[in-house]
């Protein structure tokens, strides 16, 4: 296979994937190591790259990132355990827990292992201060404005649950418990709206100057976009960096010492490395519409149903060749779930859309591109469908990094229960 180093480029054939299909069946997630590596290198100007693992939390992907000195963000106890299994340690703030609350189990583990916390509420400060005075923390600030047209992904402003609204109130609690304030964090996700990003950078500088605490770092958060659609422009990382670097310099000048600049991407590092390989199992006409139904559903790839997200789809014959034809038909692509929203071509308000695809046959393959982020990690067992396999391709060799879940494993936690008659 041509390794798709030129992102989004359709592969000419998937012949060397056919043995994988034999072994694991479809659908399968496949990730390309070389792309992950290239994406890390694109961010090398930032002092710290901290991966938001919720985008794709497979332990073997985390190990890959760790090899390139990427640090890690965890948002649950499970993600902390994944980071530990991948070899990250709580030392040097390698793992940071970010949240707007602690559940009790997570709080005790964090205190036990002394994991730095990015705090999103005053209650969290009180809770950790009481049992772990002197603990290392960051403050996640809500700058009182957000960004994004999708209400479900907005991370700032008064309709967002994230971050601290009034950080000066936090300072008293920090002092009370002698907590150690390491840095200030904002995750707004300006995308490639540089005018908006400038506003976020200014809000960061304003907050740090106003708080006037002796911090060591600032974090620009995540939200760096990738081109899902061929029309989408690529983000200008140089410009992104310059805006944040400028904010960092202003803060550094005010505090009179160097400030470390962190970035916290999820999607940017992993989305383009991944594809979802599926098989066409049913084709049916419904009035004027043609439905092509594949063997993956929104329990596997959630984004189109949840956000109306677009993923490029390419079609391959059962022999593994890209189906090249000028003649396309308007196709609605859906999955197997007993749920009418199980459609991969839809708007963010749930209206069906058509995609121009070649005339397909049963047994052809459809590949969903750029599904490395928020693909496997958002999957569920809905409709009692087991989680599918994840494969990592490195140097043209394939490694199973997650086995397909067996039905027995999926049902285990229920079958072991005995209720007396
Ligand atoms: C989800 C998340 C990120 C990563 O967002 P991307 O859009 O995937 O880059 C970074 N930081 C925090 C706190 C997040 O919740």
Would you spell out the secondary-structure blueprint of this structure?
Blueprint: H1 18-24, E1 28-32, H2 33-42, E2 48-52, H3 59-67, E3 71-74, H4 77-85, E4 95-99, H5 104-113, E5 116-119, H6 122-131, E6 136-140, H7 167-176, E7 180-185, H8 194-211, E8 217-219, H9 237-255, E9 260-263, H10 267-270, E10 274-286, E11 289-294, H11 303-307, E12 313-316, E13 329-334, E14 355-357, E15 365-368, E16 389-394, E17 397-402, H12 407-415
Parallel strand pairs: 1-16, 2-3, 2-9, 3-4, 4-5, 5-6, 6-7, 7-8, 8-9, 11-13
Antiparallel strand pairs: 1-10, 10-11, 10-15, 12-15, 13-14, 16-17
Helix pairs in contact: 6-7, 8-9
The chain binds pyridoxal-5'-phosphate (PLP).
Pyridoxal-5'-phosphate is lined by residues 52, 54-55, 73, 98, 187, 189, 221-224, 264-268, 373.
């Amino acid at each position: 296979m041509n390794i798709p180093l030129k992102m989004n480029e359709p592969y000419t054939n998937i012949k060397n994937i056919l043995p994988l299909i034999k072994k694991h069946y479809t659908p399968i997630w496949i990730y390309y190591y070389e792309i992950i590596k290239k994406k890390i290198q694109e961010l090398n100007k930032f002092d710290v790259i901290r991966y938001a693992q919720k985008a794709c939390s497979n332990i073997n992907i985390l190990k890959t990132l760790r090899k390139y000195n990427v640090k890690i963000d965890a948002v649950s106890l499970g993600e902390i355990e994944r980071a530990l299994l991948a070899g990250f340690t709580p030392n040097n703030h390698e793992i940071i827990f970010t949240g707007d609350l602690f559940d009790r189990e997570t709080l005790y583990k964090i205190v036990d292992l002394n994991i730095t916390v990015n705090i999103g509420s005053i209650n969290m400060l009180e809770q950790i201060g009481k049992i772990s005075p002197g603990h290392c923390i960051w403050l996640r600030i809500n700058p009182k404005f957000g960004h994004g047209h999708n209400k479900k992904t907005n991370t700032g402003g008064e309709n967002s649950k994230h971050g601290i609204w009034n950080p000066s109130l936090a300072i008293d609690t920090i002092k009370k418990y002698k907590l150690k304030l390491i840095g200030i964090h904002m995750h707004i996700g300006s995308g490639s709206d540089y005018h908006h990003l400038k506003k976020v950078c200014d809000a960061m500088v304003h907050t740090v100057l106003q708080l006037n605490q002796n911090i060591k770092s600032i974090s620009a958060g995540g939200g760096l976009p990738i081109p899902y659609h061929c029309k989408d422009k690529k983000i200008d990382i140089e410009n992104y960096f310059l805006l944040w670097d400028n904010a960092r310099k202003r803060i550094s000048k005010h505090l009179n010492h160097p400030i470390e600049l962190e970035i916290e991407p999820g999607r940017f590092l992993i989305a383009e490395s991944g594809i979802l390989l599926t098989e066409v199992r049913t084709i049916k006409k419904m009035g004027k519409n043609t439905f092509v139904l594949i063997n993956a559903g929104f329990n596997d790839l959630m984004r189109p149903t949840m956000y109306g997200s677009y993923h490029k789809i390419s079609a391959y014959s059962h022999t593994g060749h890209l189906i090249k034809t000028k003649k396309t038909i308007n196709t609605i692509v859906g999955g197997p779930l007993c749920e009418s929203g199980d459609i991969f071509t839809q708007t963010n308000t749930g209206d069906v859309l058509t995609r121009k695809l070649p005339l397909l046959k049963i047994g052809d393959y459809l590949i969903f591109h750029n599904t490395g982020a928020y693909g496997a990690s958002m999957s569920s067992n809905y409709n009692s469908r087991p989680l599918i396999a994840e494969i990592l391709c490195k140097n043209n060799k394939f490694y199973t990094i997650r086995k397909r879940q067996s039905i027995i494993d999926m049902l285990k936690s229920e079958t072991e229960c005995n209720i007396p008659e």
